[in-house]
Write a structure and sequence with these properties.
Helix content: 55-70%
Largest sheet: 6 strands, mixed
CATH superfamily of one domain: ABC transporter type 1, transmembrane domain
Strand content: 5-15%
Number of strands: 12
Mean pLDDT: 85
Strand order of the largest sheet: 6-9-10-3-11-12
Shape: elongated
CATH class of one domain: Mainly Alpha
Radius of gyration: 36 Å
Structural class: alpha/beta
Length: 582
């Protein structure tokens, strides 16, 4: 909660004025039973119509002033709650953006979405209601008890017994329900994850006719959430009836004692009505307090979940060496792996084991191997999406850990396996690679990526609007545009992680030829399952279960690496393999 209070400091004035105006409203409300008592005893008892009218007008005035105070309080409370929640959401988004792949994989995308949306909304609602009711309700409860003592001490003793009993019930149920609300939010994470997977994979689900099984899976997860919510709801639902029973019994006791005191001539009928009204006020406020406790329980549970994300620290740290990237041109390799080993978790087996190789400036390096051999992992270590477990990765003669993230990634262009485009114009998407890229630079990158015709055929050129996720483009078009986006910045290292899998062989060949001819001394890594995509590379790395099974040119590997030869024979004819060996 300390973190939440730090966000509330910016709205200190609103956080003070909101409760104060609510207490001012409550103060006027506490005078109402006394005015009613006076109206009964003096006006009605004495048949004084003018006095009744006067007190009636006074009640209306109290109501108008109370309404004004209430609206003012709600304005300040809403401003503080919305402002704090907005700042919290912005900072959480920034924090999540700074986490490494390791932490994001650990928490899960669906859980992070829940923290950003549902959890923070609950916190916002909790802040709003807390500022409005946390001080007001206790003030009315204890104020009503104090006012009851000014009416009659003996009758007010009922209040002195009732209020502590109610506090025990309310706070006892709160302590039980708070951890259960955390469990509810975890169940909500599961439902969100299932929903997200279904929406993203809807085409696959329909293609395999798995709608019914997916419905059953969702019903199971949703049923588990509902079951937990009902269980917590039953506990929370005890608040209102138990509170009503206690307060109504107390009201009966007040009427009983008040009747005896009235018969004895100690208090008047109007004062008994005032005592009953004060008990009704206590009932109303305790019901509000009970609901507020439920909201606070939810908000605290959600804030703990949000705070848990803030407590996650990125396992990647910016380097302290602030020399501009490429300031001192190295004559050695552009990329070098020195006995690199890597695993995705401390307890998991190694994905890469004792890898060592060099890639010189201007070289094209092909990476090939079976599924799960570690190809994508290898290239992900170059821009430092993950840190190596053992060994070193050097870029231009410097350990990648010595670079700042901004420096390192400014000289690397990455095209991931899954082509991702964003809603907006084609030009806006291209400028992700270089914010100030000119139209000429964009067209040049599109031409190299064989995507120029995509922009021209759409008829709007660079102003062509791309739908969310590139839904109005084919798979091959998206891949070519993502390659163009990486080329716009003219990186010194270009990583193509199986990013031409949707292209036909002719387009793929033209793309590789254009990259080789027009990228100058750019070091290019091509990860592919196709032998044809990497056979013309200056150096080919063959991975087998995380180990470097072979390294060399296509011709060299055919005679020296059995793993590579098997891959070639699975894709090429015997005649082609024999011809390449010669």
């Amino acid at each position: 909660m300390k973190r939440l209070l730090s966000y509330m400091k910016a709205y200190r004035t609103e956080s003070i004025l909101g409760p104060l105006f609510k207490m001012l409203e409550a103060s006027f409300e506490l005078f109402v039973p006394l005015v009613v008592a006076s109206m009964i005893d003096v006006g009605i008892g004495g048949r004084d119509t003018g006095y009744v009218s006067l007190m009636g007008g006074f009640l209306v005035l109290l109501g108008v002033i109370g309404l004004a105070c209430s609206l003012t309080a709600q304005y300040f409370a809403a401003k503080a709650a919305t402002g704090a929640a907005t700042a919290l959401r912005n900072d959480l988004f920034t924090h999540i953006s700074g986490l490494s792949y390791k932490e994001i994989d650990q928490v899960g995308a669906s859980a992070l979405i829940t923290r950003m949306t549902s959890d923070i909304n609950q916190v916002q609602n909790g802040i709003n209601m807390t500022l409005r009711l946390l001080l007001r309700s206790p003030f009315v409860v204890f104020g009503a008890m104090a006012m009851a003592f000014t009416v009659d001490r003996k009758a007010a003793m009922v209040f002195a017994v009732t209020i502590p009993l109610l506090c025990i019930v309310v706070f006892g149920i709160m302590l039980i329900s708070m951890p259960l609300y955390q469990a509810v939010q975890k169940k909500l994470d599961r439902v969100l994850m299932t929903t997200r997977e279904n929406l993203m994979g809807i085409r696959v689900i329909r293609a395999f006719n798995r709608q019914e099984s997916e419905k059953k899976t969702f019903e199971k997860e949703n049923g588990s959430l509902v079951q937990m919510q009902v269980f917590v709801g039953k506990i929370s639902a005890l608040l209102n009836p138990v509170t009503y029973v206690i307060v109504n019994l107390a009201a009966v006791a007040v009427i009983w004692v008040g009747a005896e005191r009235t018969d004895a001539g100690i208090i008047t009928q109007g004062q008994v009505i005032a005592l009953v009204n004060y008990m009704s006020q206590i009932l109303t406020e305790l019901v509000k307090m009970a609901n507020l406790i439920i909201l606070i329980s939810k908000a605290v549970a959600c804030m703990k979940r949000v705070d848990g994300v803030f407590e996650l620290e990125s396992s990647l740290r910016d380097g302290s060496d602030l020399k501009p990237a490429g300031a001192e041109k190295q004559s050695g390799p552009m990329v070098e792996f020195k006995r690199v080993s890597f695993s995705y978790g401390e307890t998991q087996s190694e994905v890469l084991t004792d890898l060592s190789f060099c890639a010189m400036k201007g070289q094209t390096v092909g990476v090939i191997g079976g599924t799960g051999s570690g190809k994508s992992t290898l290239v992900n270590l170059i821009p430092r999406f993950y840190d190596v477990g053992k060994g070193m990765v050097l870029v231009d003669g410097r350990d990648v850990k010595d670079y700042s993230m901004k420096e390192l990634r400014s000289i690397i262009g990455v095209v991931p396996q899954k082509a991702v485009l964003f809603k907006g114009s084609l030009k806006d998407n291209m400028r992700w690679g270089k914010a100030d890229a000119s139209d000429e630079e964009i067209w040049e990158a599109l031409e190299i990526a064989q995507a120029k015709e995509v922009a021209e055929k759409k008829g709007q050129g660079l102003e062509f609007m791309i739908d969310q996720g590139g839904r109005n483009l084919s798979g091959g078009q998206k891949q070519r545009l993502t390659i163009a986006r990486a080329l716009v910045r003219r990186p010194r290292i270009l990583i193509l992680d199986d990013s031409a899998s949707a292209l036909d062989f002719a387009t793929d060949a033209r793309l590789r030829r254009a990259i080789r001819e027009k990228t100058g001394d750019m070091t290019v890594f091509i990860v592919s399952q196709r032998v044809s995509a990497i056979q013309s590379a200056d150096c080919i790395l063959v991975l087998d279960d995380g180990h470097l099974a072979g390294m060399g040119t296509h011709k060299e590997l055919l005679s020296s690496c059995e793993v590579y030869r098997e891959i070639c024979l699975s894709q090429l004819s015997n005649e082609e393999v024999e011809r390449d060996e010669q």
